[in-house]
Amino acid sequence: MQISTSKGLIGIADPRWPESASVERLAIDSGFDAIVSSEVAGLLAKKDQLKMVVTKLEKQGSLQDIIAIMKAFGDSVAFVIRADASDMQSVTTLAQIPGVHVVSDTDFSKTTWLPVFEQAIEVPEPKAPVTASQTEPTPQFVFVDPKSQQLLALVERLAVTKAAVLLQGATGSGKEVLAKTLHQLSDRANQPFVALNCAAMPEHLVEDMLFGHEKGAFTGASRELAGVFEQATGGTVFLDEIGEMPIQLQAKLLRVLQEKEVVRLGGRESIPLDFRLVAATNKDLKAGIADKTFREDLYYRISAFKLQVPALAERRGDIVPLANSLAIKHGISQPQFAEHALRQLYSYHWPGNVRELDNVIQRAVVFSNYGRIEAEHVFFDEPMVRPEVEATSSFMSPRFEPMRFADRPMESSMLSGSRDLQSAVRASEYDVIMEAIRSTRTREEAAKKLGISPRTLRYKMARLRDESPSMSHCA
């Protein structure tokens, strides 16, 4: 029988087939042809025809074998790895390889798989040589959760275009990392990626950094300076917090974006530019247009394509891989998380997003024992006691009450000889609470002064009363 390859041929390697029959059916329904083998090596004979290989990671020990097989297939074949999320070392390593997609071993939904199949139509990005022990020195945007995988599919499509992209999302959700991913997947990857935070400097400095200046343009300008658009020639300019840009500069920025040329401060000659713009904001720019703090014409110039970056709590499948990656970044070469510690991370609501997760992991690394992070090593930033979060990801669905960094003292199992430190922490917290109560008329006012809810105040007072008989008068 002649094999039709109108869209391409997808190979499925699964020793437990027909467990993967759902993937085969989805591939066929999407217009691909599919062949099945009991092992990846059995597909090598068809490697020149294959667009994609779907296989399953059985256990951590098989990671080296899969990477070796991937090298044998070369860069023209994309790989999709079905993996158990509990094998965090393997999931993190695989997710960092360009052109490789990691999906939940139990997820066979069209929402997850169709975007992956669609990418098989395009030529995959070359895969960099990777070993099982290789890790990135900085945390990457992890694309494990189905929402993140859909976002990655859009980023990969946008990477081959020149469209300006506006990233919208909460502070700390990973907008700059996503912008770098977009840059790295584009044909500008070998050119500069230049970032500027529009809210981090005074207006005159932002203008200078954006457009540059000539020597002698103002007092102290002892030499010429190229602005970020010149510095990024052939590459990408990332303007973070663009909603904070002063309204006076927005007209100048608009002209640069329209004309693709810039005149330095104190200069006369126009300098031609070649850059791709990616902007980011955590503000509602439409609201800024309404209250006259953001130009409408600039908004439409920077938002040819808008991407909403989900908060960490909305992509829970990424939490554990990120925690593993951050632990490696902070000095643990082979981190091990106790199950209850993982579930605490997973069930927390993460108001600070990835930045808060980074803080939590740094603290856990300090208290960890030989790289093993237990539940008592996990301290959260958010002091308010909130309802536990429903787990919705396909990776795990625990219901554990998360512990808060400000809601409990450090336990003696974390630090030898830390009993005095614990006592000091409790005593200090007691003094602050009692001072607030004495200086206000009601408990509600005291809670407001402390920056916590009345419920949290009652909880803290009860806990202090239970922990120390000397504080029994804390009513």
Provide tags for this entry.
flat, 475 residues, disordered C terminus, 17 helices, Helicase, Ruva Protein, domain 3, alpha/beta, 5-stranded parallel β-sheet, disordered N terminus, Rossmann fold
CATH fold type of the largest domain: Rossmann fold
Distance between the termini: 83 Å
Report mean pLDDT, rounded to a whole number. Answer: 77
CATH superfamily of the largest domain: P-loop containing nucleotide triphosphate hydrolases
Number of domains: 4
Numbering strands along the chain, what is their spatial order in the largest sheet? Answer: 2-1-3-4-5
Count every helix, treating DSSP H or I runs of 4 or more residues as helices.
Answer: 17
User: Which regions have little confidence, pLDDT < 50, spanning 5+ residues?
Assistant: 1-5, 123-139, 383-422, 469-475
**Strand residues, percent:** 5-15%
What CATH architecture of the largest domain would you give? Answer: 3-Layer(aba) Sandwich
Rounded to the nearest angstrom, the radius of gyration is 26 Å
Q: What is the highest CATH level, the class of the largest domain?
A: Alpha Beta
Counting helices, strands and paired strands, the structural category is alpha/beta
What summary fits the major beta sheet?
5 strands, parallel
Fraction of residues in H or I helices: 25-40%
Shape summary: flat
Based on DSSP secondary structure assignment, what is the total number of beta strands?
Answer: 16
